[in-house]
Each structure stands twice: as structure tokens, then as C-alpha cells.
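fyi for ur records
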Amino acid sequence: MNILVFKTNINNHQKLATVNNFFSEIPEIDRWSIDMEDIDKVLRIEATENMLESNIIDLLNEINVYCQNLV
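which gave:
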């Protein structure tokens, strides 16, 4: 199990819904959460060992979501 943590620009419920729909199609992601109260809009993902930080960044960039590794 990989725990991946990112800074994002997910700052409204529309972007949150878009990410939710997108992540639901990715079997390597077991769980995820976003702290929209945090200034960095921290995204925490629990994923299989096959999922790397760069994979998440690339995937979110495809749907116009900024994502930067925090750990």
C-alpha cells in the first residue's frame, strides 16, 4: 500500500466531483480524501504499490487539476 500526499487546486465542489468520478475509474486507488479547509487543499491517496506520485500528477493534469507532491 502506498500513501501519496499532494498539494492541489481542488477548491470547489465541482472540481471535487470531477476528481471523484475520475478516481472511481482507477482500480489502483483504494481510498482518497481531500482537506478543502487546508490552504494547500491536501489530497491523500491510498493506492497499490504500482501507483506512483508521477502517475497521479499526470492523471490529474489530464483533467486540469494542479497537483504537487508534498512528501
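The CA atoms of residues 18 and 63 lie 8 Å apart. thats all i got for now
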